[in-house]
Amino acid sequence: MSHPLREHLEQVVPLTDEEFALVLSQFSCRRFRKHQFLLREGERAPHIYFVVQGLLKLVHTDPAGRAHIVSFALEDWWEGDFAAYLTQTPATLSLQCVEATTVWCLPLAGYQQLCARLPSITYFFMVKFARGGLAAQQRILSLLALPAKERYERLLHQYPTLPQRVSKTQLAAYLGVSRETLSRLAEQRHPRK
């Protein structure tokens, strides 16, 4: 029987059974309830997370108390406050379940041990971090340069199921618009008859 983590890793690198056993020995599987936090701002980030089932949101709260959704993590995605995790400094982001979620958790010591022992895993994470960095860069550029309508259209194209899985308030926070603006954009795209 296949393992979701192995299937995911092998999209980038092949693994022998022995190598995968070593990889799996460094992870733990956890289940979280809807609205439960995996990480809160100010805490140490003990893990990065591979999402098997469910949906997470990564959030930054500004000094005025406004929540800004940095990203959503769907199935087959990695998420966490990577800066806090890699530097073992307090998190500047919170990670919360939008739905009941199952994740594979990797502590920093496990990450370091796997990278030291398996060059293929080092390569895997290099690819994943590079893709994540590119995606973050594109998101920043879209927030800086694109009108709300185009950001909304891109989101619908890239993540067609996301609007059915998150509230309009959360979607608006991710797009950097008000809930009213999001409602207007949705109405323009799908006018009522």
From TrEMBL:
SMART domains: cNMP. InterPro entries: cNMP-bd_dom, cNMP-bd_dom_sf, Env_Response_Regulators, RmlC-like_jellyroll. CDD domains: CAP_ED. Residues 11-132 form the Cyclic nucleotide-binding domain. It holds the Pfam family cNMP_binding. This is Crp/Fnr family transcriptional regulator. It comes from Hymenobacter citatus.
